[in-house]
Design a protein that fits this description.
The chain is an all-alpha fold. The protein has 3 helices and no strands. It is elongated.
Length: 84
Amino acid sequence: MLWRKTSNGTQTPEGERFVERILSISQTCRLNQQPLHAYLIDVHDARLTGQPIPSPIPATRAPPDPRPYPGDLNAYPRPPCVAH
């Protein structure tokens, strides 16, 4: 959002797609703690050599925690209601 406000936008639909993709991959790399510049170099090298484009998501991700999220009260069984 801040980029769009300070950049005066794009001039073509192709420019819009480029910005969408760069901002998206930038966020993806940030969330996965991957350096954006190194990833873009890998993508460029792959294109030049005809190799598949590498994924920005590391292959060695930790499996999801099977336990319910502590804030999810619906994940825990409720005790039966007892009339007093």
